[in-house]
Amino acid sequence: MPKVFVVQEMPQHNISSALKYGEVDVLLPQNTQVAFSLAPVVRRIRRKLRDYKDGDWLLLTGDPVAIGLTCAIASAFNGGRFQCLKWDRRDNCYIPVTCDTTQNGEFDE
Question: Does 109 map to a domain?
Answer without folding.
Answer: no
